[in-house]
Amino acid sequence: MYCQKLLDKIDGGTAIVGAIGLGYAGLPIALRFVDVGYRVIGFDIDPEKVDRLNRGESYIAHIDSSTVSESVSKGFTATTDFSRLAEVDAILICVPTPLNQYREPDLSYVNNTAETAAQYLHPGQLISLESTTYPGTTDEEVRSRLEASGLTVGEEIFLVYSPEREDPGNPSFVTKTIPKICGGVTENCLQLGVALYQKVVDRVVPVSSARTAEMTKLLENIHRAVNIGLVNEMKIVADKMGIDIHETIRAAATKPFGFTPYYPGPGWGGHCIPIDPFYLTWKAREYGVNARFIELAGEVNRGMPQWVVAKVADALNDRGKPLKNSRILILGIAYKKNVDDVRESPAIQVMELLAAKQADISYSDPYVPTFPKMREHQFDLASVEISAETIRDRDCLILTTHHDAFDYDFIRENATLIVDTRGVYSDTYDNVIKA
To answer: Which of 3, 182, 272, 396 does the annotation list as catalytic?
Structure first.
């Protein structure tokens, strides 16, 4: 009964959607539901974010304020009042799933959100967990907390896992065009989850269970993490042999089958790749499995900032300069090009290592005007403008994030020394060291 009533609401466009967590995953999917005509309420614990959204302002670089403003004009509203969950028919949980200090999964955001939602549930609601997590979270953690409300999953309320697949800054793929995986706790749950997401994405891919959907998301990110680790290790080997790894990759990529190019860098970054693999390695230990391959990739990738700093120290030493007190400019602190996201950015780890060696650090990043407040990293810095004087005043520039906004020819022409961690400079220059 409740399943059919909710299905009718979804199909008729009258269902109200609530998105919990209005960050890089939650805000795009919320705005997409608004775009196709649903009424949407966004929930977040940050009152500053809520206020900005309600004013029609975006705080994410790749989402235009005009898009937010248009959504507000269509009825989108954001709130810190979680009691309004009682108003919605579908709840999308898009909260962080970090690692704790022991590199173990921290599900506190997911569990606290589920417990909060349980206080306001009523029969005929669909709950979708979108946060990346280990297989079993939806069944073992979220379901039990939701059913503490006295409502039964699959009969009165419905639960699915449908992982976010956003790629910030990638103009080729947006929320509408990225296929959506969906796994339900029961058949009724899956039916409702597919029906809901079919309204906003071109293709929904149903799978047999929430656990399969959870594993699918982890496999996607572990695939990338392992290959990034492989190519970063290859970079170190190639460097020792005097071989340009970027030239090697470009040559290998001409093979029309059996090879997918991955590119080395100063490490890994973002909320997914440095974190998600360890959700699986942790869960695998419960089954007596030691996922050594994944752990090794993590070891290689976590070591890359140290590799970069060693290359900087060697390059300065070759020019008669000690690393201590050298004036170093970091080019780009976002974890990837053309975005403002600094979560787990290897550039920041490079900055911390340099600071520990008493280098004089500054940074330039057009997407990050001031160094953000972070739980683990603190720098009282603001982005400096790129100019001939700024560049010449530094002993070394470290290219850590290859934003399109940088004028690389201008930078090279004015720099004394550049350590290029992204392979931007394909030719050989006296003042460019590839790292």
So the answer is: 272
Q: Which domains does the chain have, with CATH numbers?
A: 2-211 (3.40.50.720), 305-434 (3.40.50.720)
Query: How many CA atoms lie within 13 Å of 397's alpha carbon, on the beta-carbon side?
Result: 30
Q: Is 272 a catalytic residue?
A: yes
Summarised one tens digit per residue, pLDDT across range 331-376 is: 999 999 999 999 999 999 999 999 999 999 999 999 999 999 876 7
Reported as type and span, the H/E element at residue 220 is: helix 210-240
Nearest-angstrom CA–CA distance, 207 and 192 = 13
For the record, the structure tokens of 363 come out as 């940074």
Q: What is the pLDDT of residues 296-321, one digit of tens each?
A: 999 999 999 999 999 999 999 999 99
Contacts of 105 (CB under 8 A, 6+ apart): 97, 99, 133, 134, 278, 279, 282, 283
| CA-based nearest residue to 92, from 195, 18, 166, 190 | 18
CA distance 180 to 25: 13
Separation of alpha carbons 30 and 40, rounded Å = 7
DSSP assigned state of 340: -
Positive or negative, the Cα torsion across 204, 140, 133, 120?
positive
Determine contact, residues 110/127, Cβ cutoff 8 Å. no
Query: How confident is residue 102, by pLDDT bands cut at 50, 70 and 90?
Result: confident
Q: Are the beta carbons of 49 and 59 closer than 8 angstroms?
A: yes
CB 71 within 8 A of CB 41: no
